[in-house]
Amino acid sequence: METSARSGLVGSIVANRYEVRALLARGGMATVYEALDLRLDRVVALKVMHPHLAADPGFVARFEREAKSAARLSHPHVVGVYDQAKPTAWSTSRWSTSPVGPCAMSSISTGR
Known about the structure:
By secondary structure, the chain is α+β, with helices and mostly antiparallel strands.
């Protein structure tokens, strides 16, 4: 069903830590996936910046500021940010190894 380059991350390991399991959503700045944190054995949301934006240092800086700002928040109705990776994070799949744009990992909301 999904044909974008970012859907290619499903089944990949990002930053040697996050196993990408499913595409959750796409927005104007990034794509969000469900992933498994292989170190801590927990399900997380993995937000990956779109490649065309990752080439722009201004957008990368904005993305990093957003992750840092969100990580400072602590409220029951706000998902927590666990980690953030630079554009040099790598994705490994059964087919290839390739660079991934900036990404941020956060808790997944169950909607409850």
